[in-house]
Amino acid sequence: MKRLLILFTLFLAFSVQSQQLIPLDEKPYLDSLQNILGSNGPIKAKANTNFLLSNYYRNIDSVVSKKYLESGKTFIKNDPFLSAKYDFYEAQYDLDRNKAKAAVSYQKAIKALSKFKNEESDLLQAAAWYSYGVTQKDKEGYPFLVKTILEKSIPLAKKYENSKSLGFLYTQLAVILMYNAEFKKSEEYNTKALKILEKYYPNSPELFFNYLNLSNNFCYEAKSTEAKKFLDKAETLISPYPNSSVNAFYYYSKTLYYITTQRNSEAVSVIDKGISYAKRFNQSLLAQMFYFNKYDILRKLKRYNEAKGVLEDILTEKSLALDHNNRKTIYKQLSSLHEEMGNTKEALAWEQKYSKLNDSLNTENVKLEINKIESKYNAAEKERKIATLNAEKNQKELEVNKKNSYLWGLSLILLLVVSLLIFLYIIFRKNKKISEQKINDIRQKEELSLTKAILEGEERERERIARDLHDGLGGMLAGVKINFSTWSASHLDPENNQEFYKILGQLDNSVGELRHVARNLMPESLLNFGLETALSDLCEFYNRKDIEIDFQAINIEKNLPLNIQLNIYRIAQELLANAIKHAEATNILLQCSQSEKDFFITIEDNGKGFKNNKEQNTKSMGLLNLKNRVDYLKGSMEINSDHQGTTINIELNIDGE
Asked: pTM for this one?
């Protein structure tokens, strides 16, 4: 059962389904969507169809999914509801690629959808809240996801008591509870979903997955009779559709049932069927999970070489082994399998790989286990040597006994010396790591202090120069201009003294340019109205006939400390200047969003791009200043650039200094 729960951790990724489940009979569904695209139907229908196709392909073919998403965007025009749906499906596309970006898009979609009071809007908001909770799971944990479903998603779906979405949400909540070993509560929510889905949506994919979840839950409770009842119901739904991609999930649940009932030989053929479906539909991670089950069964059947081959194939294919914890589990299984086969040398090698990976993940030391296997290996070697000596020197028993005693004593001393050296080496490495970490921390603090002093000094000097220019030189020039204007009005004729008025105009332009310089040095709108207004003014300033800048602000708080607002403003200023001056972009998107103590900046442009390498970043003063400000706010920066444009993603920590 413990092994099944380990595998279920992996299977949860598949159980947490997208809100838009595909009908079990997939081909007619896809054909109908393609027919809509090929017809002369309404623009809204084509937009929605593109969004649904993007969602269908998002885990199958990312290129095709992105193509349909952008195609749907072209039909939005000035429709705010379609624009909100685009934000939702863009988040769906990013969900497994960039959770931080997806989270921002989900919140943007929720905010836009909340302005519409209809069923489709409410159910999309419910889906967006649920998926937002999924994006925060790794950071906030399962309690946050459960709270989001119960307090945000389900209340929206409950407005429509018998909706398919409500049944889906009950099922997903049941999956999370099952994963956390809350089997009784899981059964309660699965039953709630069952009452809705069986009565109103008898042939839906939501009901199919509800049956599978109930079967799985009963398997983990070792209630095979109840599990079989719901597995049979799922089979009745899926059997008419042998070409459906969800067949792989059915065979996975069937495998779990056979393992629970200890029908290992039958489970092997079921696994092979599941693998064929998973490979057919590019479900690589699910295929590897089938292989892991196959390994476990072959080991129970004592078909050790086949079991070993399956595990080695899992490592070669890498889908399951990409996760360090999964790879660590596989190393451990290979070690114990070789030990069971009597291959102590290979068992030691795999145990050492496991130990090395375990250390890198800061888990408990497995030195005792390694020593145990190592002792077995050394004992086997010693016994072989003793047997050889006895065979060669049968007539010298006394001498052999003395030599054996000597060898045993020497081996014990050597073992103690090796153990002591290993122990001292581990202590040395640990102390070295701690010392290096302390040195790095001190160096990082010094660099941050220096950066802070430079940036704060720079801002103070900017403020002083801006004040001197605006209040001192600006006031003097403005006074001169007023005096000239007053004097010329009574002493000069505009037609006969055009040269003088031309000079007067140049003086006026100089005053305006001086005020523009002063504003760049210290933006007044930032001091008076806050960061969001200042950023909006900055984008308006850079807007021209040949340059379009789209600024999007999401949840920016007004009570941020001034020094943090100034640094964010300078970062945005540098990003916009680079996009316009160096990239020669004509279309720029600047998005700034805040999630509690995290601040995200994303800028995308259609400029000529640049080569993103360390040498250029070192030489570029603009990128160096940008990096200093990002480091000052303990942030990170990711740059993606090619000939089609540049995208820069920045994440900042604004939790004080």
From this structure: 0.53
